[in-house]
Amino acid sequence: MSEQSSSRPLIVMDDIVKIFVNAAGTFTALKGVHLTVYEGEFVSIVGKSGSGKSTLLNMLTGIDHPTEGRVLVDGVDVYAMSESQRSQWRGRNLGIVFQFFQLLPMLTLHENVMLPMDYADKYAFDERPQRALELLKMVGLEKQAYKLPLAVSTGQQQSAAIARALANDPPIIVADEPTGNLDSRSAAYIIDIFEELSRRGKTIVMVTHDPSMTERTTRTVVISDGELIEEAIVLALPMLSHPLMRAVHDRAERLTFNPGETIIQQKAPVDKFFIIAEGRVEVVLQVRGKEEVIVSHLGRGDFFGEVELTRGGKAIASVRAALDAPVRLLALSRPDFDWLMEASPMTAEAVGRIVQQRLQENRSQERRKRPRILGGR
After folding, report:
1. 2: pLDDT confidence band, cut at 50, 70 and 90?
2. What is the CATH number of domain 248-367?
3. Are 139 and 196 in contact (CB under 8 A)?
4. Model-level pTM?
5. Which residues contact 12 (CB under 8 A, 6 or more apart)?
6. Which partner for 277 in 13, 97, 220, 328 could form a disulfide, CB atoms 3.0-4.6 Å apart?
């Protein structure tokens, strides 16, 4: 995800723990999850079966209760309400799309879409039929409006479920495996609808098992064994499998540098691979004695240190925290970096291409006759 400077936090999940208790004992499904979703984002939540995806979604929708922690939606504490208050709140603020559609089989598509309006009593009675037709038209089902769910295809049923989720014009759409039972063509059409809704300002949170779906969302959140993987790892190393992402998450050292503080000194040994988790850094090349030229700025999800670790030798440039804010980094030791490159040849190949690109950038800067001088440095 890009830095959220203009969007406001719409969903805040603060230290969410969920423990299930049954005859076999206790099972911790969510282990202190922190997640913020910003207004207008299209977020995919991915992870293997049993990782906690659907449990996380149930915490957001108010369908289930967290054992610990708070869920705030547009500033409202979801679990400070009574069950009846939460049900009314859900009907007005969330549109939920289920994997198995959950359309009532004895009602037409048109009647299914009107149902949430009847329940929440949000629109005038005589406005509801026309609004339902407009929503069905938006998802391409105006000609099927008066058919029963079983009389249309599975893709059309899911489209109708999306229209129903939009019935009360909620700011948030929550979808649990919405393409899981669809063919590739129908699945692509459903994601087309979600993309259009996102462009119109809706905030969409979608659980999916299909990695190809994440390519069309604005942000991907990976969950593993009830914990969220640092999103910077997902951005920096997208070719890693989820188990390898989890391994990097567990092995990484967390470091923080103050504004302007040096992280790597040019010509000094480098023994770590750094991923930027928050903030920005400047890559600075020293030329002509004490003069400096900024080679590049790097932000969240970018990495550095790979040139020296893959090619040996000392730092080809200095790296320092930008002046506007602290920078938080994830750091892998040299042995862990070597292990990662061996464990993921595709990642090693991608890193190798970046090494060549950055070496070329540095050579180009060194050849310039008039480097940009930093005043006061």
Report:
1. very low
2. 2.60.120.10
3. no
4. 0.83
5. 35, 36, 70, 71, 72, 73
6. 328
